[in-house]
């Protein structure tokens, strides 16, 4: 199976002339003339980026998804290829409804008619690992049912193993290979694919995001119906809205487009900096907008939370929670230091943050790194705010990072990807959107909470219960530590004595052996 899949990948790669990505390397350059002479019949008039995109589309949904992710890593690939890969759309043909029904009945261990009062066999959406059907529960609740694509797990496993092999070649053939950490990039991709294969995990992601925004009027997240969820199936509220990419429909519905764009930025930064848990697949297909005057399909009971209730303002609706990003407190503090230094135009602090985090070699000259960061960031402050592109600044920083061998951080890949998606989506809604102006007040407020006296009070409140529990135990713990120290010293002393005794015994054995040899020699000569 794996050999057949590898043969197909190689044939598609040769058909689209992808060997040039490897034959350009000096170690295998002599083979270029042989390949070109053998495959002279191929029409390769299209640019390399177009051919790569078409090859990924021919290879199937997993490679399409990988190409989508790779398009956001402009620190890894040339811009012409990144721009072309950004055109990839995850439009996968649906699998037969009979297979979807069989998967659901196997998951519920009962006929589908006993689970749903109505079930629409025609899918409303289809992606690489699952597809969605509309249904209605027996109590009348309108729901969306997500069904895992049958047999997708072994296909993903085979394709990912081949991607690892390709990453190994990149590390060996290219000078930048180890710095770019392609294996870790594939590992990050594999982790998120594994998450998408478990719809219970996606349901938990959905539930967490809904809880984070329960009291927010900005974002609506569907409710999960846990009694109908499993690894292969997920049931949630059916959401009614207008796709965010349909600008004219939004305008016709009375949506305030500039305000909607600014709201998207606020939602993103709230997820990242307040919660450290963010929707990392925010392409237009996963985002709907509910105009403020549109009713919900399932009106909730009174007083059950503002997230599910009618809102007088326009509201985003989030869908597809298979890929969620997380940030640790260390990651958030690192980002806070960089943002704070950037707003203060303190580029030396940016360079020091990279050095202290270990992301650049210890022998890096701070003044040179500071100068490189200044060259990228300083023009931002000398231009009108509305002309600043956060994404462009980020990409220029990526390009500058190559010179200083900056270690790529896989845990921030999704953040970079999502940030670029947010800016692109926001500018699609409102070309005059100023991401800096919209985000700066929020970031300054968050950094003050994290790094000022408010942060100190918050940390004291968080740690106080632990200190209250620990304080009465301090005498006992101190006594225990002293005893353990004495025991360690005793063990060290005994070990030293045994080693010394062993050494003495070894020398005594050597001396005894020499005496025995001398005695035997003397006896031999006396007998003669």
Using the alpha-carbon principal axes, give the shape: globular
| CATH architectural type of the largest domain | 2-Layer Sandwich
Please report the first level of CATH classification, the CATH class of the largest domain: Alpha Beta
The largest sheet, given as strand count, sense and whether it forms a barrel, is:
5 strands, antiparallel
Helix- and strand-based class? alpha+beta
Query: What is the CATH superfamily label of the largest domain?
Result: Phosphorylase Kinase, domain 1
Q: Count the domains.
A: 4
| Residues in β-strands, percent | 5-15%
- Count the DSSP helices: 22
Per DSSP E runs of 2 or more residues, the count of β-strands stands at 11
Q: How much helicity do the residues have?
A: 55-70%
- Taking pLDDT < 50 over at least 5 consecutive residues as the criterion, the unreliable ranges are none
Query: What distance lies between the first and last C-alpha atoms, to the nearest angstrom?
Result: 82 Å
Mean pLDDT: 76
**Radius of gyration, Cα only, in angstroms?**
31 Å
CATH fold-type name of the largest domain = Phosphorylase Kinase, domain 1
């Amino acid at each position: 199976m794996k050999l057949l899949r590898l043969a197909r990948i190689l044939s598609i790669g040769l058909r689209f002339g992808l060997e040039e990505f490897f034959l350009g390397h000096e170690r295998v350059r002599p083979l270029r003339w042989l390949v070109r002479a053998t495959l002279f019949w191929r029409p390769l008039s299209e640019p390399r980026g177009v051919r790569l995109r078409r090859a990924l589309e021919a290879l199937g949904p997993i490679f399409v998804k990988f190409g989508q992710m790779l398009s956001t890593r402009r620190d890894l690939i040339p811009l012409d290829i990144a721009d072309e890969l950004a055109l990839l759309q995850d439009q996968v043909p649906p699998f037969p409804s009979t297979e979807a029904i069989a998967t659901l009945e196997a998951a519920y261990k009962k006929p589908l008619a006993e689970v749903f009062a109505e079930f629409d066999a025609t899918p409303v959406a289809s992606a690489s690992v699952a597809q969605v059907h509309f249904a209605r529960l027996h109590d009348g609740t309108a729901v969306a049912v997500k069904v895992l694509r049958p047999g997708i797990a072994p296909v993903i496993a085979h394709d990912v193993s081949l991607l690892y092999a390709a990453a190994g070649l990149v590390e060996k053939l290219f000078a930048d290979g180890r710095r770019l950490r392609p294996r870790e990039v594939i590992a990050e991709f594999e982790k998120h694919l594994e998450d998408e294969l478990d719809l219970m995990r996606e349901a938990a992601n959905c539930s967490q995001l809904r809880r984070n925004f329960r009291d927010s009027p900005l974002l609506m997240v569907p409710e999960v119906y846990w009694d109908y969820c499993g690894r292969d199936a997920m049931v949630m509220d059916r959401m009614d809205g207008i796709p965010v990419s349909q600008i004219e429909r939004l305008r016709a519905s009375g949506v305030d487009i500039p305000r909607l764009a600014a709201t998207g930025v606020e939602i993103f930064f709230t997820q990242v900096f307040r919660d450290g848990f963010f929707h990392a697949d925010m392409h237009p297909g996963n985002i709907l907008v509910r105009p403020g005057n549109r009713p919900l399909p399932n009106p909730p009971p009174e007083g059950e939370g503002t997230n599910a209730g009618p809102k007088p303002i326009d509201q985003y609706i989030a869908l597809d929670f298979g890929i969620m990003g997380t940030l640790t407190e260390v990651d958030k503090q690192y980002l806070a230091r960089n943002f704070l230094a950037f707003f203060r135009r303190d580029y030396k602090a940016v360079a020091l943050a990279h050095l202290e985090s270990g992301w650049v070699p210890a022998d890096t000259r701070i003044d040179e790194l500071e100068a490189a960061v200044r060259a990228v960031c300083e023009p931002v402050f000398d231009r009108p705010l509305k002309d600043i592109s956060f994404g462009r600044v980020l990409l220029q920083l990526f390009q500058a990072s190559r010179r200083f061998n900056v270690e790529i951080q896989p845990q921030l890949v999704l953040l970079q990807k999502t940030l670029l998606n947010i800016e692109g989506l926001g500018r699609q809604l409102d070309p005059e959107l100023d991401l800096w102006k919209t985000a700066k007040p929020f970031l300054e407020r968050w950094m003050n909470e994290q790094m000022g006296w408010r942060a100190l009070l918050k940390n004291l409140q968080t740690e106080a219960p632990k200190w209250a529990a620990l304080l009465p135990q301090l005498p006992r713990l101190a006594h225990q530590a002293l005893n353990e120290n004495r025991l360690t010293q005793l063990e060290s002393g005994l070990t030293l004595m045994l080693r010394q005794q062993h050494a003495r015994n070894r020398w005594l054995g050597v001396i005894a052996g020499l005496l025995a040899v001398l005695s035997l020699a003397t006896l031999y000569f006396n007998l003669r």
